[in-house]
């Protein structure tokens, strides 16, 4: 429904969920399992249906940035990146970032979740206790029985809601990458299944793809059999402008924040409001959630007062602790004509590929761009680890990631064929922020991922690049790799640092801006049950609550958090 339908309906709701994104739609689905509970999900963006750049897996890089499905944010100038500002995509559409992301589905390591449990003091966030929720999320589509060993069946669930699958269309670089894992097995071991809790090594990418089309929280958790539930309502094109105190508890005196104020996403002066009968849940993501909290006066009181927002509840951690993965693409000219650069330059070939996808949901467009991922740690004797303490969650967590692709992701140069290894620092120590310079809810917040604030992250990125350069120097790739188009393996550290600062962007994984901490901690925004500290009626369920960033792409963790949160909410209102 749209806002007009909602206003005309006079409906009331037990649960109001702000943001129909990755986490929000999990909650919409799970909470509406109880027919007695009425739910509304309020989403700022529009429908995901019929948007080809969302549906066709290989078109994912076209879904953002700077599109109608993107919030079109830009970071503030990054001191660590030669003062460049970066595009900072977030899904502005039903399904949120799960509708526009690159679909890699990586849970992360046991250590990542055990650190969540340690810092929150709640063992429910440990790997062992979360596996059941990972399995509720995942509906794995095993490849045909005769395909080569590319996954461990024991790791996967066939009965969850969100489709996950392995690449179906084999690309020219696939066999070369896998062969290198046996030729250089010491440094680049093959990992049969990176979702086992022990991700280290190189293995096949698992992606949120359902028979050749994207699986997002909108296509899975809001599939027709769920969205037609009479107690589940989804309102599109409606921007939540703040949350408001509706009452206070006569028993504890604590303020109750169960009212939400909203407006058409197109803007204008009109404001409407609804009060949840049971709970208001923010699932607006790592940028949207702290933005709404601060607009509501929940945050650091002096900063809020300085931009004319009346503080309503003091929680200085709101918007702090922004953590993201710095990301850099490296490409090499190769001695092969079978890369996906060809179709980017040849309209006839591109049309043929689209026709194949359109008629059978197969072919090169039915998979994402990256068929293998690698999760690697520095060797224990690395000088980086001698100069800095280990920033990872533990010995099972990677320091950096390699993403392999059979061509240039995006627009290639006019001639040549390419192989790409993108690299990312996945155990970063830099911390950034989301702040406001305006009380106008339609003004973008100031986003500062603060890349390379920490020298340790720059040192890790340097090692990641050197590692990718060693990978392409493998003897089996000698007649394949011709020359680097980005940076030479002979570059000095200073030259490499300068290249990194000039070319690094975001892997689009912001987390941590409304972080969970232990009950009674003097920092953090939510308690381990994800309720906002010091108030009643308000909970946060999205990537903003992560206290640390997993050494992984972040959607699987986000789905997992939302699945557990649904159980916590059900338990609280049973
Ligand atoms: C381009 C891109 C590529 C990525 N690639 C991968 C990948 O390959 N693998 C992976 O695991 N992760 C990837 N990620 C990250 C992953 O998608 C996110 O971590 C995850 O989806 C975040 O989920 P969320 O629920 O926290 O937020 P979102 O899914 O972003 O949901 C937030 C929702 O809230 C809505 N909203 C925000 N503010 C308001 C408001 N004021 N009123 C109403 N609605 C509002 C938004 O429109 C959105 O729908 C990528 C992200 C992007 C953007």
Automatic annotation (TrEMBL):
Cofactor requirement: FAD
Glucose-methanol-choline oxidoreductase N-terminal domain residues: 285-299
SUPFAM superfamilies per UniProt: FAD-linked reductases, C-terminal domain, FAD/NAD(P)-binding domain
Superkingdom of source: Eukaryota
List of residues binding FAD: 93, 240
Record: active site: 509 (proton donor), 553 (proton acceptor)
Any one GO molecular-function label of the UniProt entry: flavin adenine dinucleotide binding
Keywords: FAD, Flavoprotein
UniProt-listed InterPro entries: FAD/NAD-bd_sf (IPR036188), GMC_OxRdtase (IPR012132), GMC_OxRdtase_N (IPR000172), GMC_OxRtase_C (IPR007867)
Family stated for the protein in its record: Belongs to the GMC oxidoreductase family.
Protein name, entry field: Aryl-alcohol oxidase-like protein
């Amino acid at each position: 429904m749209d806002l007009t339908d909602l206003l005309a309906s006079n409906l009331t709701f037990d649960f109001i969920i702000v943001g129909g994104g990755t986490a929000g739609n999990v909650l919409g689905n799970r909470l509406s399992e109880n027919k007695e509970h009425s739910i509304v999900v309020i989403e700022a963006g529009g429908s995901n249906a019929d948007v080809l750049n969302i549906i066709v897996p290989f078109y994912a890089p076209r879904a953002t940035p700077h599109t109608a499905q993107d919030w079109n944010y830009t970071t503030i100038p990054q001191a660590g990146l030669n003062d460049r500002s970066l595009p900072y995509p977030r899904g502005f559409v039903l399904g949120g970032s799960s509708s526009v992301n690159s679909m890699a589905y990586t849970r992360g390591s046991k250590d990542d979740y055990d650190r969540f449990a340690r810092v929150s003091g709640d063992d429910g966030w440990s790997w062992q206790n979360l596996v059941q929720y990972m399995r509720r999320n995942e509906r794995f589509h095993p490849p045909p029985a005769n395909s080569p060993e590319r996954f461990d069946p024991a790791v996967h669930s066939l009965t969850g809601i969100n489709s996950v699958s392995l690449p179906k269309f084999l690309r020219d670089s696939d066999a070369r990458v896998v062969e290198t894992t046996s030729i250089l097995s010491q440094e680049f071991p093959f990992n049969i299944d990176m979702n086992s809790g022990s991700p280290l090594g190189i293995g096949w990418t698992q992606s949120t793809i359902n028979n050749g089309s994207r699986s997002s929280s909108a296509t899975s958790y809001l599939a027709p059999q769920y969205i037609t539930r009479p107690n589940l309502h989804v309102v599109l094109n409606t921007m939540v402008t703040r949350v408001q105190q509706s009452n206070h508890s006569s028993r504890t005196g604590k303020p109750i924040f169960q009212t939400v104020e909203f407006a058409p996403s197109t803007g204008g002066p009109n404001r409407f409001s609804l009060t949840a009968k049971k709970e208001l849940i923010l699932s607006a993501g790592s940028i949207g959630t702290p933005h709404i909290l601060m607009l509501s006066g929940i945050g650091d009181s002096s900063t809020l007062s300085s931009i004319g927002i009346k503080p309503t509840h003091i929680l200085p951690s709101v918007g702090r602790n922004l953590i993201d993965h710095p990301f850099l693409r490296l490409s090499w000219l190769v001695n092969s004509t079978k890369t996906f650069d060809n179709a980017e330059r040849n309209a006839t070939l591109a049309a043929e590929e689209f026709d194949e996808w359109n008629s059978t949901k197969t072919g090169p467009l039915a998979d994402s761009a990256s068929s293998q991922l690698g999760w690697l740690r520095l060797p224990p004797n690395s000088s980086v680890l001698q100069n800095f303490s280990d920033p990872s969650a533990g010995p099972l967590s990677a320091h950096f990631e390699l993403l392999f692709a059979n061509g240039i992701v995006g627009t290639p140069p006019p001639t040549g064929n390419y192989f790409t290894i993108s690299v990312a620092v996945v155990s970063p120590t830099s911390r950034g922020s989301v702040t406001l310079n305006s009380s106008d809810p339609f003004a973008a917040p100031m986003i500062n991922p603060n890349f390379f604030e920490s020298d340790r992250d720059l040192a890790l990125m340097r090692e990641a690049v050197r590692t990718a350069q060693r990978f392409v120097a493998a003897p089996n790739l000698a007649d394949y790799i011709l020359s680097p188009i980005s940076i030479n393996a002979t570059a000095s550290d200073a030259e490499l640092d300068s290249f990194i600062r000039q070319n690094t962007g975001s892997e689009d994984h912001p987390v941590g801006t409304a972080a969970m901490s232990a009950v009674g901690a003097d920092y953090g925004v939510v308690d381990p049950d994800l309720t906002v500290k010091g108030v009643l009626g308000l909970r946060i369920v999205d990537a903003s609550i992560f206290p640390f960033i997993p050494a992984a792409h972040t959607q699987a963790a986000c789905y997992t958090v939302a699945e557990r949160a649904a159980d916590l909410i059900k338990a609280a209102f049973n």
